[in-house]
Amino acid sequence: MRFSLSVAVVAAVAALGLTLGIIACSSDSDDGPSGNTGGDAGAGGDGTGGDDQDSGTGGDGGDGGSPGTGAGPGDGGSGGGEPQPQDCVEIQSLTGAFASTQYLDQYGRVVMQVDITSPTFGGNDIDGLDFAIVDSEGTFQLGTGANATAQNCDQCVTMGIDYDESNQWKPAKEYFAASGSITVTRESDWEHVKVFLHEVTLREIDSNGAFVNNGECATVDKEIQFAPFN
Length: 230
Known about the structure:
The chain is mainly beta. The chain has one domain (3-24, 86-228). It has one helix at 3-15, and strands at residues 89-90, 93-100, 110-118, 126-133, 138-141, 155-163, 173-186, 193-205, 217-225, 227-228.
């Protein structure tokens, strides 16, 4: 089980400053259309005839052509931004949901974990969701306020891809909950907990806990019943 690392994973999230899209658009602007050419010059006037000895007077010059139409402004390019939920991979099924008060992290939060069985995000190693929850029940917003970053969150939700058992269960990639909400209900104790993740988007983070530009993302909308870890 990943509980041998659950503390390390969550503590590393807090201690190392780890703060879970895939599509971000460029913001280049398109060039505007070219302007039209000016109008043709007017025809010259008729000259006055001269006598046998003098030359005739030249006609008046024609009116100038009308000015060309100027080019309009170019269309703006699409703005960059965070990946949207419709661009993310949806987590479809979970298994092995365990909670344990034996593995509190350095902030006294209850550590919980559940493995992702579908889809497979990386290679053949385990993918999973990890939770670190303070001693409080209710509904809490993710990605804002006390849960804005992975450095110090009250209801931490992270996702790890390809946990490596040979390397102290460290994940190859990690994601952090950037939006959505979590409802926590304790039943008899903190080892019997029900969690409802509502429209949660997890975005990829780097080793410093910052969201990765154009990084990957996942969504989850599920109720999870945790059992004690023995």
